[in-house]
From TrEMBL:
<comment type="similarity">
    <text>Belongs to the TACO1 family.</text>
</comment>
<keyword id="KW-0805">Transcription regulation</keyword>
<protein>
    <recommendedName>
        <fullName>Probable transcriptional regulatory protein H5993_02320</fullName>
    </recommendedName>
</protein>
<keyword id="KW-0238">DNA-binding</keyword>
<dbReference type="InterPro" id="IPR017856">
    <property type="entry name" value="Integrase-like_N"/>
</dbReference>
<dbReference type="InterPro" id="IPR026564">
    <property type="entry name" value="Transcrip_reg_TACO1-like_dom3"/>
</dbReference>
<keyword id="KW-0963">Cytoplasm</keyword>
<keyword id="KW-0804">Transcription</keyword>
<dbReference type="Pfam" id="PF20772">
    <property type="entry name" value="TACO1_YebC_N"/>
</dbReference>
<dbReference type="InterPro" id="IPR048300">
    <property type="entry name" value="TACO1_YebC-like_2nd/3rd_dom"/>
</dbReference>
<dbReference type="GO" id="GO:0003677">
    <property type="term" value="F:DNA binding"/>
</dbReference>
<feature type="region of interest" description="Disordered">
    <location>
        <begin position="1"/>
        <end position="22"/>
    </location>
</feature>
<dbReference type="InterPro" id="IPR002876">
    <property type="entry name" value="Transcrip_reg_TACO1-like"/>
</dbReference>
<feature type="domain" description="TACO1/YebC-like second and third">
    <location>
        <begin position="81"/>
        <end position="236"/>
    </location>
</feature>
<feature type="domain" description="TACO1/YebC-like N-terminal">
    <location>
        <begin position="5"/>
        <end position="75"/>
    </location>
</feature>
<dbReference type="InterPro" id="IPR029072">
    <property type="entry name" value="YebC-like"/>
</dbReference>
<dbReference type="InterPro" id="IPR049083">
    <property type="entry name" value="TACO1_YebC_N"/>
</dbReference>
Length: 242
């Protein structure tokens, strides 16, 4: 029995690692799609796409996955993907936005609605929660291996055209106007910074606490959304108190 238990423990850890890796790949695929859609699909002529491809390789993302994401953006192979954003309320009334890339709107709409309904939430109309978020450029620089202190990074970020910066124990988060993100990114890279993230995203103005008795339902909603192949990103105006 001990061997049987050990097998299940190892298998459980492997399944958890696979799920985490899948979510990382999913986010990178979204970033690849957006970078290729917004600019040249040739990374030699597209710094943003090149940055995301480097991140994909560092995460050991298979080459075919990388190419598939770029093909979605360019329509290669006859695929016609659309960008659709759904807005809704999770358990406890917390705001959630879901960004999707799909070649079948009916399939995606049914799946997203089902995820909210099964978890005690509900889909809302366009604009029902998006006003709670700000569209911003986000650049993240990891502290590990960085030989500059917070004041130096802040000055470099402001000189590059950034609007604000937040520092935590493990990274610096630099915020920009969406249209300024590429120029700030390029300026920081020219200064020798290695960027962990450079993207345009949705930042909540405020976060609402998920009620303690709704945490399980809320986590189920987010997991179901993130495990959907049509879902490229989930934006949350919520936090869970640990």
């Amino acid at each position: 029995m001990s061997g049987h238990s050990k097998w299940h423990n190892i298998q459980g850890r492997k399944n958890a690692q696979d799920a985490k890796r899948g979510k990382i790949f999913q986010k990178i695929s979204r970033d690849l799609y957006q970078a290729a859609k917004a600019g040249d699909p040739d990374p030699d002529n597209n710094p943003q796409l090149r940055l995301v491809m480097e991140k994909a390789r560092a995460a050991n993302m298979p080459k075919q996955n990388i190419q598939r994401a770029i093909d979605k953006a360019t329509g290669a192979g006859g695929a016609n993907f659309e960008e659709i954003t759904y807005e809704g309320y999770g358990p406890g009334g917390v705001a959630v936005m879901v960004f999707c890339l799909t070649d079948n709107k009916n399939r995606t709409a049914a799946a997203i609605r089902s995820a909210f309904t099964h978890s005690g939430g509900s889909l809302g109309a366009n604009g029902s929660v998006s006003y709670m978020f700000n569209r911003m450029g986000l650049i993240e620089i990891l502290r590990d291996g960085l030989d500059k202190d917070e004041d130096e990074v802040l000055m470099d970020a402001l000189d590059a055209g950034a609007d604000d910066m937040k520092a935590s124990d493990d990274k610096f988060q630099i915020f920009t106007d969406p249209s300024a993100m590429p120029s700030v990114r390029d300026a920081l890279q020219e200064k020798g910074y290695e960027l962990d993230t450079a993207e345009v995203t949705m930042i909540p103005e405020n976060k609402t606490k998920v009620p303690d008795d709704k945490v399980g339902q809320y986590q189920h909603l987010i997991d179901e959304l993130e495990n959907n192949d049509d879902v490229a990103d989930v934006y949350e105006a919520a936090y869970i108190e640990e």
